[in-house]
Amino acid sequence: MDILILFKALILGIIEGLTEFLPVSSTGHLIVFGDLINFHSNGKVFEIAIQLGAVLAVVFEYRRRFQQVMTGIGRDRQVNRFVVNLAVAFVPAAVVGLLFSKQIKQYLFNPLTVAAMLVLGGLFILWVEKRQSSRTPKVKTVEEMRPIDALMVGCAQICALIPGTSRSGSTIMGGMLWGIERKAATEFSFFLAVPMMIAATGYDVLKHYQLFTLQDIGLIAVGFTAAFFAGLLAVKALLKFVSSKNYVPFAYYRIAFGGLILLTWATGWVSWGE
């Protein structure tokens, strides 16, 4: 296999792993960088592989917590509450995604939509952080969350169906707006990513399984591995970061990155696919 193609797969795997859990939009970055480096594989197959690599990073990082959940379902009241919260938060975006995913991918999956949403999302994060600086969170930990709290986070996740918005950004900011403490909202966003991404991956596998070929094994292996280790690094770093800081730096990054894409498009420096 062409070494250049493998290098591109490595780059996109790293991008997926680093951005999946940061409030900067992994899908948006993959669309932009995939277009920029002219990466064209069996798109869905490769995307499924690297998304799975990223989500397994969360499962590995929280393996003890997930083990407790698996052994405590039906017997542990706190575990049952946690599972119910995940189920409640999962439903809104899953339903809307099933109903409108085709239209969203047809009309919104392009670099210019991503750029606009990066900028708008960055401004939104700035507003949320400024608002929260003068408010005391009502929910301090994931264990304190009620189904209504989870539902609000789940409704916020619907926004993430638009590329460039960011699933983690939507759920974390939505949780904070509702009164969930920053670190608790971040952890719940990580947990929610697991059923959400496994469901999305399973759906795509069933829909596109005929695209899997032996020729793609090397490509998939490189992207999957890169996404796993980059995702593990991102999860650890983000939890440490939000323990003492806020999301304002990510907001400025979004605005700068999205603005750069729009600038290069407006001046004709880069002919972004539309």
Outline of the structure:
The chain is 76% helix and 0% strand. The chain is built from eleven helices and no strands.
In words, what does this structure look like?
The chain is mainly α. Helix 3 (43-61) crosses helix 10, helix 5 (77-108) runs parallel beside helix 7 (147-157) and helix 6 packs antiparallel against helix 11 (248-267). Helices cover 76% and strands 0% of the residues. The mean pLDDT is 90. The two termini are 29 Å apart.
Secondary-structure topology with pairs:
Layout: H1 3-19, H2 26-36, H3 43-61, H4 63-72, H5 77-108, H6 111-132, H7 147-157, H8 167-178, H9 182-208, H10 217-242, H11 248-267
Helix pairs in contact: 1-2, 1-3, 1-10, 2-6, 3-9, 3-10, 5-7, 5-9, 6-8, 6-11, 7-8, 8-9
Output the helix-strand order: HHHHHHHHHHH
Distance between the termini: 29 Å
Q: Low-confidence parts lasting 5 or more residues at pLDDT below 50?
A: none
User: Which overall shape is indicated by the principal axes computed on the Cα atoms?
Assistant: globular
| Secondary structure tally: strands | 0
Strand content of the residues, in percent? under 5%
Mean pLDDT across all amino acids = 90
Biggest sheet character: none
* Approximate helicity band: over 70%
| Multimeric status of the protein | single chain
Structural class designation: mainly alpha
Radius of gyration: 18 Å
Number of helices: 11
Organism: Neisseria lisongii
Membrane topology: Multi-pass membrane protein
InterPro entries: UppP
Subcellular location: Cell membrane
